[in-house]
Amino acid sequence: MSAPPVGIVGGGNFGWGLAHAVERAGREALLWSRRPQRTGTEHIDLVSGPAALAACELIFFAVPSPYVASIARELGAHLDGGHFLVHISRGVVGDDLHGLTQVLRSETPCRRVGALAGPLVAEALITGGPSGGVVASRFPEVRAAVREAIGGPLLRLYSTDDVTGAEFASTAVGLFATAIGFAQGHGLGPAAQAMLATRAMAEAARIGVVLGGKHETFMGLAGFGDLLAAVAGDERPELAIGRAIAENQPFEAIGSIGGTYFEGLESAGRIAAYTRRVKLHSPVITLCAGAFAREIPASEAVAALMSREVGEE
């Protein structure tokens, strides 16, 4: 009996990247998008509506976080508890920073959900270049299904049951990668970028633990490994967006960079508000939120970052 097709929601670069990864793994992909950017292939079938994805066991969500709830609700009418849902979005929702797996569970009848995190970039997924990531789920069968669907010799997928940690780490890295691009746009060199990355991830880990995640998740591939790839220059869209913010480009132009939805501005503001409410010290994220929203002049944000009091390593 042949394996069922793999469903993909979203026709942006990541959606197509996942579809090509499925194709390379020898599986059929069904891709649903209201605005597909390309035409299908022999093993990638563009479907006209969500009902077609009911034939899949595993369905990937490759859409920005603000749209996950409404799309999940529409798709959920055709699903049942036998389906697995896995998202690849870098965002949190609500004042309490809920991960999108909670949204998938609340808007569909599906219980077995997960998230893809780590240094996955759309270009490597599309071309098949060497890459790696983390699949986070409390259900071993979901982790196994993802590895079988897209894993291979050049796409190494590690596993964790720390869904909360992986989701928040992925969100944090998205906004920190933007901050790295912002720093590059202001001429900060490797040492300053390393300092920013280290302090930022330590800050994210503190917040993640309060949310219920594990500290070690932030020090692994889903956290520091992902941010290291950004610092090394994997040219993910967030880096270009950060440089564009540093150049004071209008938000309308920034929104179209790399064909991606910029989640960093919303995430930074939401996380900064949460840390103020629960009285967590988060100077890097607070600066990111102010700089991204242009509430703090760029030069002032850079100066504030470099003037933080130093202490023990």
From TrEMBL:
The Glycerol-3-phosphate dehydrogenase NAD-dependent C-terminal domain sits at 162-302
Q: Magnesium as a keyword?
A: no
This entry's Enzyme Commission designation comes to: 1.1.1.94
Report the top EC class in one word. Answer: oxidoreductase
Which superkingdom heads the taxonomic lineage of this protein's source? Bacteria
Question: What UniProt keywords apply to this chain's record, in alphabetical order?
Answer: Lipid biosynthesis, Lipid metabolism, NAD, Oxidoreductase, Phospholipid biosynthesis, Phospholipid metabolism
Q: Which reaction does it catalyse?
A: sn-glycerol 3-phosphate + NADP(+) = dihydroxyacetone phosphate + NADPH + H(+)
Q: Where is the Glycerol-3-phosphate dehydrogenase NAD-dependent N-terminal domain?
A: 51-138
Q: Where is the signal peptide?
A: none
Q: Which InterPro entries match?
A: 6-PGluconate_DH-like_C_sf (IPR008927), 6PGD_dom2 (IPR013328), G3P_DH_NAD-dep (IPR006168), G3P_DH_NAD-dep_C (IPR006109), G3P_DH_NAD-dep_N (IPR011128), NAD(P)-bd_dom_sf (IPR036291)
Its family remark reads: Belongs to the NAD-dependent glycerol-3-phosphate dehydrogenase family.
Name of this chain's protein: Glycerol-3-phosphate dehydrogenase
Supply the source organism's classification: Bacteria, Pseudomonadati, Myxococcota, Polyangia, Nannocystales
